[in-house]
Amino acid sequence: MIQSGRSRTAVALAVAVVSSALAVNCARSGGSRPTAEEAKSFLDNANQTMLRLGIQQNQAGWVQQNFITNDTEALFARINQQAIDAVARMAKEAVRFDNVDLPADRRRQMQVLKTSLVMATPSDGKEAEELTTIMARLNGMYGKGKWCRTENP
Question: How far is CA 81 from CA 47, 92, 116, 123, 151, in A?
């Protein structure tokens, strides 16, 4: 079978792209598969990080809900963005351990980590900041709401 110059070039280009992708993937993984011990270390670090950020979120949330100002909304938005970014990063990293044989409790922790993010912020920093700021303002608006009793319900 005789191939035209264009089809040979297309085939060569496709082979080069696939080879490059495979080489990059192998370089990223370091040629070795992750171990159960690495998964345990990853989960320990993720749990510590999420505990620290969760405490900070609750502290900022309490202050923002009890002292509703532009400043407390900004503080709450900032810590929420940090927490969302951290969980999104860890959820992506957890995929590395999908094919690792783990005890049931660790497998469940990986699954919960990968599905726990309620809302991911945009990858653009300014858009992510805008979204978390809107979330904090909505929370503040709810807290500032007034109930108006009507005479005729």
Answer: 18, 17, 15, 11, 43
What are the tokens at 56? 């900070």
Specify the residue for token string 């009507």.
Answer: 150
Tokens 């670090």 -> residue: 45
Angle between helices 36-66 and 104-115 (to 10 degrees): 40
10 Å CB burial of residue 15 (0-12, 13-18, 19+) is exposed
For the beta carbon of residue 37, count every other beta carbon within 10 angstroms.
Answer: 9
For residue 150, the one-letter residue type is T
Given pLDDT bands bounded at 50, 70 and 90, which one contains residue 25? very low
Q: What angle do CA 55, 53, 105 make, to 5 degrees?
A: 95
Which pTM value belongs to this model? 0.65
What sign does the CA torsion over 71, 72, 75, 81 have?
A: negative
